[in-house]
């Protein structure tokens, strides 16, 4: 590998990669097409790393031996197209950093549930006494942690964009939580391309590695049958009895691996809902493979309360529960959210539509939703999809307005649910910003 490393994008993954690059003796140059956050600038200055913002100096970039491209930059960006034409190696942070660690890696991907599964897996391993780091699409940069910490294991939450930039990366344990159409705008509106991207997590795995997956996901199972992988398969299911892997029977999770058994009553899980049973089964399978004690696993599953912005209960006001599910950036995630509602619901939805098909939500909306508050730029499709099912639909352009309208439309015993089913980039920095604004608006009621 040549020694000139150019990094495109000076966010968390870019700056983390720069720190690791310097440590490993690379000549590093960081280039951001937009503005670099002040905090990241300070880090680059501290490490004496050359950087630029508000544009790309082509000559400097095309002189690279290796380019680390941040996941937010599409392959169609002009500078990336030029790099590919020049035959320059373009990789993701995950690919770059994984070459410099001996740590055992658990990689977790999927359309939904990956953050909860990754956070829960990390909690199980840490409580089990392992020296483990959590990175990828979550928390501190993987590359930065490889540079500065000496972990024995890493739990990585991986997006399809991060997996698109791998060449030799191979997690010892890979988890694929589920597949549903998402980010199709980045995959030529072709679901098959998106599925192939997710399955890259297993492409370099060997026979002594493991692949944990949802056996109830027809799309996933069908793809596996047509494109067999080398690693050992460990399925989990809510509906089928499995000889090995995890399944649910008589309100209990039953896990069997290498003649080891674990049972856990569903009622004692800290996280409720069918999707969370699956997240728990996936995380428990990882913990069992890594020999975490049964008692530790049970204790951790009982106490784990979930992640911010994922069906997070904010406040009860006038006997109305306000729930923040800002992390639901696609239809499938919102499906789970609506499915878990047990009271009449005022639903705040909308944002940047990523080619959504709202058809799957119709039965749930019909059953659970009393009013819809549209928030964001793409309201037309939502109004068209649900206009015949829901009597009250209101369009809003700010979180404050949306929450105020929802407050007026709700009655004692109702729930107000923010579950946008869309990306957040029209009115917010990201889904976290959207969730925090929701919580603030609720607290100000």
UniProtKB/TrEMBL annotation:
It is found in: Cytoplasm. Its EC number is 6.3.2.9. GO terms for molecular function: ATP binding; UDP-N-acetylmuramoylalanine-D-glutamate ligase activity. It comes from the Bacteria. It holds the Pfam family MurD_N. Pathway: Cell wall biogenesis; peptidoglycan biosynthesis. Residues 108-287 form the Mur ligase central domain. It catalyses: UDP-N-acetyl-alpha-D-muramoyl-L-alanine + D-glutamate + ATP = UDP-N-acetyl-alpha-D-muramoyl-L-alanyl-D-glutamate + ADP + phosphate + H(+). One of its GO terms (biological process) is cell wall organization. ATP binds at residues 110-116. One of its GO terms (cellular component) is cytoplasm. Signal peptide: none annotated. Keywords: ATP-binding, Cell cycle, Cell division, Cell shape, Cell wall biogenesis/degradation, Cytoplasm, Ligase, Nucleotide-binding, Peptidoglycan synthesis. Residues 309-422 form the Mur ligase C-terminal domain. Belongs to the MurCDEF family. NCBIfam families: murD. Cell wall formation. Catalyzes the addition of glutamate to the nucleotide precursor UDP-N-acetylmuramoyl-L-alanine (UMA). This is UDP-N-acetylmuramoylalanine--D-glutamate ligase. It comes from Constantimarinum furrinae.
């Amino acid at each position: 590998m040549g020694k000139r490393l150019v990094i495109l994008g000076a966010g968390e993954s870019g700056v983390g990669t720069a720190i690791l690059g310097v440590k490993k003796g690379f000549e590093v140059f960081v280039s951001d097409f937009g503005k670099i956050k002040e905090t990241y600038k300070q880090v680059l200055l501290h490490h004496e790393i050359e950087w630029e913002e508000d544009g790309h100096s082509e000559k400097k970039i095309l002189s690279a031996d290796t380019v680390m491209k941040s996941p937010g930059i599409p392959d169609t960006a002009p500078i990336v197209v030029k790099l590919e034409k020049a035959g320059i190696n373009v990789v993701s942070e995950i690919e770059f950093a994984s070459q410099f660690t001996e740590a055992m890696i658990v990689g977790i991907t999927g359309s939904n549930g990956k953050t909860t599964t990754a956070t829960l897996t990390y909690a199980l391993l840490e409580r089990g006494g392992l020296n483990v780091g959590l990175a990828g699409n979550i928390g501190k940069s993987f590359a930065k942690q490889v540079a500065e910490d000496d972990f024995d294991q890493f739990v990585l939450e991986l997006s399809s964009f991060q997996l698109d930039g791998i060449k030799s990366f191979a997690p010892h344990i890979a988890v694929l939580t589920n597949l549903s159409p998402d980010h199709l705008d980045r995959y030529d509106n072709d679901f098959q391309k998106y599925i192939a991207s997710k399955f890259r997590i297993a492409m370099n795995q060997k026979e002594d590695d493991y692949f944990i997956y949802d056996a109830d996901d027809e799309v996933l199972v069908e793809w596996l049958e047509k494109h067999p992988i080398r690693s050992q398969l460990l399925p989990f299911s809510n509906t089928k009895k499995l000889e090995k892997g995890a399944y649910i029977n008589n309100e209990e999770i039953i896990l069997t691996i290498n003649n080891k058994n674990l049972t856990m009553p569903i009622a004692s899980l800290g996280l409720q809902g069918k999707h969370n049973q699956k997240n728990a089964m996936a995380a428990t399978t990882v913990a069992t493979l890594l020999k975490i004690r049964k008692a530790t696993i049970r204790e951790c599953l009982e106490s784990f309360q979930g992640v911010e912005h994922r069906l997070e209960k904010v406040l009860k006001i006038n006997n109305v529960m306000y729930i923040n599910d800002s992390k639901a950036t696609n239809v499938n995630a919102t499906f789970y959210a609506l499915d878990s509602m047990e009271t009449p619901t005022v639903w705040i939805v909308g944002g940047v539509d990523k080619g959504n098909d709202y058809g799957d939500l119709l039965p749930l909306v019909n059953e659970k939703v009393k009013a819809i508050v549209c928030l964001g730029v793409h309201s037309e499709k939502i109004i068209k999809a649900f206009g015949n099912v829901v009597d009250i639909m209101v369009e809003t352009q700010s979180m404050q307005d949306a929450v105020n309208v929802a407050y007026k439309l709700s009655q004692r015993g109702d729930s107000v649910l923010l579950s946008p089913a869309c990306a957040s980039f029209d009115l917010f920095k990201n889904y976290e910003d959207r969730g925090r604004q929701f919580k603030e608006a609720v607290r100000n009621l």
